[in-house]
Specification:
This protein has six helices and two strands. With 120 residues, the chain is mostly helical. It has a single domain, classed as Cytochrome Bc1 Complex, Chain D, domain 2, CATH 1.10.760. Strands 1-2 form a two-stranded antiparallel ribbon. A hairpin with a 2-residue loop joins strand 1 and strand 2. Helix 1 crosses helix 6. The chain is elongated, with a radius of gyration of 18 Å. Bound molecules: heme C.
C-alpha cells in the first residue's frame, strides 16, 4: 500500500515536472518567435504581421507540413529551394522572396517549434 502510494505520488510529481518543462518551452518559443522577427513576415491567425504577401500564415503549419520538412526548410530555406523540393519552390513562387537563413540555434528552433505546435 505504502509502495503504491509512493509510486503514485512520484508519477504525479514527474508528470507535473514534464508539463512545466513543456510550458516553459512554449513560452520561450513565443518569445523567440517575436524576438527573431518571425512576426514581421508571418501571421498566426489574427496575430502578428497581417500582410499576406510577406510570408505564409503559420497557424496550423505543423498540421499541413511534416515536422521533418519544417525543420529542414527553416534551417536553410535557400538550400531547400535549390534542392528542387516541390513545396519550397511552390512557396518561393507564391511569395517571390526567400526566407532568410537565420542564426537561430537548434535549441531555439526546438522551442519555436513547440510554440508553433500549439498554434493549431
Ligand atoms: C523576411 C521575412 C521572413 C522572416 C523574418 C521569417 N520568415 Fe519564415 N518564411 C518567409 C517566406 C517568404 C516563406 C515562404 C517560403 C519562401 O519563399 O522562402 C517562409 C516560410 C516559412 C515556413 C514554412 C511555411 C509553410 O507554410 O510551409 C515556416 C515554418 C517559417 N517560415 C517559419 C519562420 C520562423 C519560425 C521565423 C523566425 C525564426 C521566420 N520564418 C522568419 C519569410 C520570412
Amino acid at each position: 500500500m505504502k509502495g503504491t502510494l509512493l509510486f503514485f505520488g512520484l508519477s504525479l510529481v514527474l508528470a507535473t515536472g514534464a508539463m512545466a518543462a513543456d510550458a516553459k518551452k512554449v513560452a520561450n518559443g513565443k518569445f523567440l518567435f517575436e524576438d527573431w522577427g518571425c512576426k514581421a513576415c508571418h501571421s498566426i491567425g489574427t496575430q502578428y504581421n497581417q500582410d499576406p504577401t510577406k510570408g505564409p500564415d503559420l497557424k496550423g503549419v505543423f498540421g499541413r507540413e511534416s515536422a521533418d520538412w519544417i525543420k529542414k526548410f527553416t534551417k536553410d530555406p535557400q538550400a531547400m529551394i535549390d534542392s528542387g523540393d516541390k513545396r519550397a519552390n511552390e512557396l518561393y513562387k507564391k511569395y517571390g522572396t526567400v526566407m532568410k537563413k537565420l542564426k537561430v540555434s537548434d535549441a531555439e528552433w526546438n522551442d519555436i517549434f513547440e510554440f508553433l505546435k500549439t498554434q493549431k
